[in-house]
């Protein structure tokens, strides 16, 4: 089993994508260099192993012995990969990094020591991520395993939390709204601007200020705009300027904002 000394853990990373790359680099920064990385793609495995200065593998069965195996693969690939990992590492602590996949995917795969290590952030290989500024949510099949994962998370960030699979699923949904949906809105804004000869860059100060306000105000307190004020004249004018799918999104979000504002006023 995994040594209680987290710093001396023998760690293997299964996966070589965005999250695996950023997590591997973060572990190296706190003095925990993975022994090896795995990917179905030899090119990806070699690229990440070169970055982390460890070995690479395309066969899970050829990976070295480890105390902790961090599996960072696509959600739909996780059940199959989990079975291979559980078979290769019956005595190691095996974890996945997915937001919406329950911990029991490991039990179904036949693992005996398992958990979840979920860093809640959007990751890109080319973008350096400061793990000390993000939350990591852990879950273990026992209190001992959970304690060990909490110690590892605490080496990377002061924001380490325990979260059940159900709580983590809601975290992931909330992240979809706050990140993926917000980014889709930026995309719509870019389309409207570019279609009218304007650069998207003019939105960046507004986007930055909106995000910055949320460090001191709640989302309800920070909300502004015609729907928040109930300005029907401007809303009707803007609605008439839009075509699908922008107009449908405008209506849905405006109704939500307006209803929230009315509910707050009643309270």
Overview of this protein structure:
The chain has 267 residues and is α/β, with parallel strands linked by helices. It has helices spanning 18-29, 42-52, 78-88, 105-109, 143-156, 165-194, 204-213, 219-222, 226-229, 232-241, 246-266, and strands at 11-14, 36-38, 55-57, 68-71, 93-96, 114-120, 135-140, 160-162. It has two domains: 6-163, NAD(P)-binding Rossmann-like Domain (Rossmann fold), CATH 3.40.50.720; 170-266, Orthogonal Bundle (N-(1-d-carboxylethyl)-l-norvaline Dehydrogenase, domain 2), CATH 1.10.1040. The protein is built from eleven helices and eight strands. An eight-stranded mixed sheet has the order 3-2-1-4-5-6-7-8, with helices on both faces. β7 (135-140), α5 (143-156) and β8 form a beta-alpha-beta unit. α10 (232-241) runs antiparallel to α11. The mean pLDDT is 94.
What would the keywords be for this entry?
single chain, 267 residues, alpha/beta, Rossmann fold, N-(1-d-carboxylethyl)-l-norvaline Dehydrogenase, domain 2
Q: What is the architecture of the largest domain at the second tier of CATH? A: 3-Layer(aba) Sandwich
How do the strands line up in the largest sheet? 3-2-1-4-5-6-7-8
Residues in helix, %: 40-55%
Structure summary, number of beta strands: 8
Number of domains: 2
CATH class of the largest domain: Alpha Beta
Q: Give the CA-based shape.
A: elongated
First and last CA, distance: 54 Å
Oligomer: single chain
How are helices and strands ordered from N to C? EHEHEEHEHEEHEHHHHHH
Question: Count of helices?
Answer: 11
């Amino acid at each position: 089993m995994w040594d209680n000394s987290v710093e001396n853990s023998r760690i293997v990373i299964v996966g070589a994508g965005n999250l695996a790359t950023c997590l591997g680099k973060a572990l190296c920064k706190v003095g925990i260099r993975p022994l090896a990385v795995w990917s179905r793609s030899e090119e990806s495995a070699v690229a990440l192993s070169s970055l982390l200065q460890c070995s690479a593998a395309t066969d899970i069965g050829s990976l070295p012995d480890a105390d902790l195996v961090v599996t960072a693969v696509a959600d739909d690939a996780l059940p199959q990969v989990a079975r291979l990992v559980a078979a290769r590492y019956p005595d190691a602590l095996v974890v996945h990094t997915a937001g919406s996949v329950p911990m029991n995917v490991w039990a179904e795969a036949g693992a005996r020591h398992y958990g979840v290590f979920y860093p809640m952030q959007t990751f890109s290989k080319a973008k350096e991520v400061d793990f000390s500024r993000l939350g990591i949510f852990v879950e273990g099949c026992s209190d001992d395993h959970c304690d060990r994962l909490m110690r590892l998370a605490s080496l990377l960030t002061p924001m380490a939390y325990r979260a059940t699979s159900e709580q983590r699923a809601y975290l992931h949904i909330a992240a979809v709204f706050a990140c993926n949906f917000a980014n889709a809105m930026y995309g719509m804004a870019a389309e409207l601007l570019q279609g009218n000869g304007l650069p998207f860059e003019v939105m960046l100060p507004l986007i930055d200020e909106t995000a910055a306000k949320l460090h001191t105000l709640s989302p309800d307190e920070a909300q502004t705009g015609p729907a928040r004020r109930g300005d029907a004249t401007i809303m009707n004018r803007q609605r008439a300027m839009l075509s699908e799918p922008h107009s449908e999104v405008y209506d849905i979000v405006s109704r939500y904002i307006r209803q929230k504002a009315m509910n707050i006023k009643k309270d």
